Amino acid sequence: MATRNWIKKLFQIFLQGLIILAPIVITIWAVTSLFSFVDRILPDLFGDAIPGFSTYYLPGMGFVVALLVIFLVGYISSSFVVGKLVELFDSVLERTPGIKIIYSTLKDFFEAFAGNKRKFNQSVLVAANAEDVWQIGFITQEDVREFGLNDYVAVYVPQSYAFAGHLYFVQKQRIKLLTDIGPADAMKFAISGGVTKIDEDPAGTTV
After folding, report:
1. Is the N or the C terminus of the chain less surrounded, counting Cβ atoms within 10 Å?
2. Under 8 Å CB-to-CB from 119, ≥6 apart: which residues?
3. Is the pTM of this model over 0.85?
4. Per-residue pLDDT tens for 10-65?
């Protein structure tokens, strides 16, 4: 009995350490992996083309240059000439067979999160599969009449512990707007499988 209690105690200590360290380690791994991926872009592009490049290259330079390029593109994109060039380049990619599917999908995805056409800013509860079973979702289109559906909305429902999800066309009366929970908290709650604590009351009003 004493041995069993001792093993049980050790297992509890192990789980407690795992609970503390796992989120920290995984977060550090994700951040460093992203940093390394971005930082390697510069030497991969110019390492062989420029003699002596590796001699003067310091870790982190590629990441800094990538950030500067992103800021520069964002800054100059508001100018008339650059704006027209971006529109021309966008038009070419949108009309190129094969490429347009990848480009337009990625463009809409990023704009849905951070652009002027943000879609994941209206969190809701949706009864998509059963009348009394609710899921957290986000309205992406409030008018889907082009699909032959009147009084319906398009709702994206994220999956737990994944970046995947499902798209549903549901009637408006099966939607409840989440007015006391922000979109970020709603997304975090859905992706975490409901284990993330939210202080606000999840009250909603019918659309």
Report:
1. N
2. 112, 138, 139, 140, 141, 156
3. no
4. 888 888 888 788 878 888 888 888 888 888 887 777 766 676 666 677 778 888 88
Backbone angles phi, psi at 167, to 5 degrees: -105, 130
E strand or H helix that includes residue 98: none
> Cα separation of 146 and 106, whole Å?
22
Cα–Cα distance measured from residue 181 to residue 53, given in angstroms and rounded to the nearest whole number: 50
Distance CA 75, CA 79 (A): 8
The type of residue at 97 is P
Q: How far apart are CA 204 and CA 207, in angstroms?
A: 9
Highest mean pLDDT among 29-43, 99-113, 185-199: 29-43
Angle between helices 99-114 and 80-95 (to 10 degrees): 130
The Cα-based distances of 155 to 66, 97, 104 in angstroms read: 34, 29, 20
d(CA 23, CA 21) in angstroms, rounded, equals 6
| pLDDT band at 206; cut points 50, 70, 90 | very low
CA–CA gap between residue 177 and residue 16 (Å, rounded)? 37
Question: Kind and range of the H or E element at 74?
Answer: helix 61-76
How many H-runs (helices) and E-runs (strands) does the chain carry?
7, 6
